[in-house]
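FIELD: query
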Amino acid sequence: MWWVETDYYIFAIYLNDSRLTQPNTKLKPNKIMYDFAVIGGGIVGLSTAMMLGKKFPDASLVIIEKESKVAFHQTGHNSGVIHSGIYYKPGSFKAKFTRAGSQSMVEFCQKHDIPHEVCGKVIVATQEKELPLLDNLYQRGLENGLQVKKIPPEAVKEKEPYVSCLAGIYVPTSGIADYKKVCEKYAEIIEQQGGEIRFNTKVLKINNSNNYKFLETSQGEIKAKFIINCGGLYSDRLAQLDGVNPQAKIVPFRGEYYQLTPEKTLFSQKSHLSRS
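FIELD: result
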């Protein structure tokens, strides 16, 4: 079993060593046989492919993306937050990986000159009943090894003049990043490693034969020794195409964002604001 570590996720891929230690015959362009086929060109698929390329430099790899560019769906349509890990259960994988991913994402953005800012986050309580919840969150932040700080309403005002609250927590390690740019750099690195990205290619069916996966796509058949499902909101359907019962169904929901008026964006300090 190999552990593949990305900026956000660490997960296990079970590999038959003989299938990777056999000489890898480099095929001509438009090849249909690969060692790895990663389904999905979002940040999970791209970071997974990048780390596979690093760990197995002689392996052939293809990313299969049904859209015309990377980060077309959820990756490119979110608030761009670099999460600190304050919300997650202390000692859990999610807390551990979020802290590690937060640090590695900032380092990656710095290395490749990708727009980002470690601006911090203010979490506030606006009602008396929220104060115990805010305190619990503060304790969780400490247990997670974060440099969280309780701040009174006047200190919150200094950071966010238009916020009214009873108390707040300041999380200095939270930030924002341009994840579309991050994904574009991931794609560039993958191609430098020798990997391929096939756009406008939708997986229609998955067949298994002699330890190989045969992917029928909208652009023809692709054969691979291993497939990694990084299909985001469609990952449960892709699992079913491979005859796997995921025992769960992904139910998507739409998030909504509001843009402040120009006169209320002149904060003394940019911070990501959420409510406890």
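FIELD: remark
The first strand starts at residue 2 and ends at 5.
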